[in-house]
Structures are given as C-alpha cells and as structure tokens.
Write a structure and sequence with these properties.
Serine Threonine Protein Phosphatase 5, Tetratricopeptide repeat, globular, mainly alpha
C-alpha cells in the first residue's frame, strides 16, 4: 500500500513544489527518489526554521507514513489538519494511518 500511496501524492508534490522553502524542495526531491532518510532530515531542517510551516508538517506526516511509523505520522497529520481542516490529503494520510494501525476512526 505505501508504494501506491506514494504515487497518489506525487501530483500534490509537484503542484506544491514552487512555493516551498529550499529544505522542502530538497525533501520533495528525496521523496521522489524514495530516499526517506534524506527527506526526513530536510523536513526536520525546515521545521527547525519554521515549526508551524504547514507544508513541512504535512510532509513530515507523509514520510513517517512511508516509513511505517503510523502513530507518529498520525500526530503530524492531526497537527496539519488543525491548520488545514479541509485538506483531503491530510485526511487521507490520517485515515491510512488508522487503517495501518488497525483502528476504527
């Protein structure tokens, strides 16, 4: 399922790319290569500079999901949805986190 999810989010990554910080651009490039460790380092760098940057919070949740850390991913997805409550992508990650953890929503 994570590989399929990666494909589903690829369009979002490309659409959001133009407005991102240098760290997030690096993270997106790393995610496209499926280099999750490098992507997470770049996202963490972006979050250090701007802890409330919604894009960085979203991508942190995404990388955590891709690496099987569903509980941590849920935490970031909820944090993201507090800022972007109508985000289908945010709800998708949170729902998949719950699914992968075998929990009902």
């Amino acid at each position: 399922m994570p590989a399929l999810f990666c494909l589903l989010v690829a369009g979002y990554a490309l659409a959001a790319y133009a407005g991102q910080s240098a760290s997030l651009k690096q993270a997106i490039q790393s995610m496209q290569r499926r280099d999750w460790k490098q992507a997470e380092r770049a996202i963490d760098e972006a979050l250090e500079k701007s802890p409330e940057e919604t894009g960085a919070v979203y991508w942190k949740s995404y990388v955590l999901f891709q690496t099987g850390r569903y509980q941590e991913s849920s935490t970031y997805a909820v944090r993201y949805l507090e800022k972007e409550p109508n985000s289908a992508d945010g709800h998708k990650i949170l729902g998949l986190d719950y699914f992968m953890r075998h929990q009902a929503m």
